[in-house]
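Q: Could you fold this chain for me?
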Amino acid sequence: ETKKLVLQTEDGMSIVSSAQIFPRYVRVNKLKAAPKEVIGDLLRELKRVSPSMKSESELGQKCSERCIFVDAHIPDVFVLPPKLSLPWHELELVKSGKIILQDKSSCFSALALVHGSHEMNEGDYIDACAAPGNKTSHLAALVYDKLLKGGQKKRTKVFCFDRSTARLSILKERMSQLAPLVSDDNQGLRNKSKFPVEICPMLQDFLKTDPNDFQQVRSILLDPSCSGSGIVNQPDRLADVKKGDNDRIESLSNFQLVALKHAMSFPNVERIVYSTCSIHKRENEDVVATALIESNREIEDTDMRWQLVSPKALRHWKRRGLDHDCLSKEQSNCLIRVNGMEDDTNGFFVSYFERGSRTQSECKNLASSIITHIEGTSGVYNGQFGSPGANHRGLLQDSRKNGRSKKEAKGTVGKEAMETTVVPRKKQKKLDW
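A: Sure. Below is the predicted structure, expressed as C-alpha cells.
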C-alpha cells in the first residue's frame, strides 16, 4: 500500500511521491523483557483502543488477538497492522525499553552477525558505527540470548564506536533505556555486575583504531553512512536529491570501502557483517567485491583469507545479490537484498564474511532457525495485512504446491525454504538459536 505526497525542494520544484506503508514492526528487547510478557501488554493496549475505532477496517484486520503476528524471518519481532493508531511513544512498553519500534530490514545486520554460522561465537564484538543505537541493542540482545543458551559464563564486550560527542551521548542515553546499565563516574556507563554482556561506548573514529588494541574482538558489525536510497517509507528524503548525487554516492562508496578493509585488517576477527540501507550497486556489491580482492591480496595464508558466506539465520530469504563481474554466482547468492517496494520493509543490503577455508558446500549443512508460535499471536506473518511481498509470496506459493490451501498456508514456510520450520501452536519449542 502507498500514500501520495507532494514535496517541495529548496528551488521550489514540486515532487509527487508515493510512500510505502508497511506493517508496524515491534522488536521485543530481550535484555529487559520476554516475548510472552510483551504480548500480554500489547493485547491489553489493542483492546483498550479498539472501541474508539470507527470501523474494524481501520486496523487492517479485526482488532483482536488475531492482529498480532510473529515475523517469518526475525525472532522476537511482532508484526501489527499498518493503520493501527496507538500512541506508540507514550506506551510504557516503549518508554521502559521493553519493545523497540524498529524496521524489519534493519534487524538483519545483527542477526546475520550473531547467527551467521553454526558455531558458538566466542570473543568480543565491535559495532563500528553505532549511534543512535538500535542495532547495538539488538546485537547485545542476541549475544546475551546466545550466551545464556550456550552456557558461556565469560562476560562478552560490545564496543560501540562513534567519533561525534553528540551522537555518542545519544547512544549512551539510548543504551541506558534499553540495556540494564547503571551510572559510572569514570566511564559514563557500565553494566550491572551480573549481566553477561558489557556495552562499551567509545568516543573514537573507527577508522583510526589500532586493530592490535582489540585482540579479543572476533566479530565486527559495520553499518556505515550511506545514501539511504532504500528507505521508501520516508519520501521527504527525495527533496534532498541534488544534481551532485552521483558524486555523493561515489564519495560514500569510497568511505565504505576504506571502513570495510579496515575491519578486515583486525588480526583476530573471524566474522564481519557489512550492511547499508542503500539500493545502489556502487555502495553494495562494488564495495564487497573490491574489499575481498584488495584485502585477500595482502593475506599470504590462504586459510586466513576472507570469504562470503550465506548467513544461516537468513538462509530462507529469497532475494539475493546482483550479478557482478568480480563475484561468482555463488558469491552473489550469499548476499542479502531487500526491495522496499515488494518486501514489506525498507530496502536494505547485507553481506556476511568469515575468515577461513570453509567451503559453501560445508555451510549448506549448518542447522537453520526455527520460528515459533507465541501464545496470544496469530502465528507467522505471511502478508495478511495486504498483498504479500516477494518473500512472503514465495512462501504462499510453495505451500500451495505442497497441496495446502491458502488458509493452511498461513504461518507455514514453503518447500524452497524448508530449513526454517514453523512450529504449530500445540507443539511450541524454543528457538534453536
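A (continued): Residues 303 and 310 are 18 Å apart (CA to CA).
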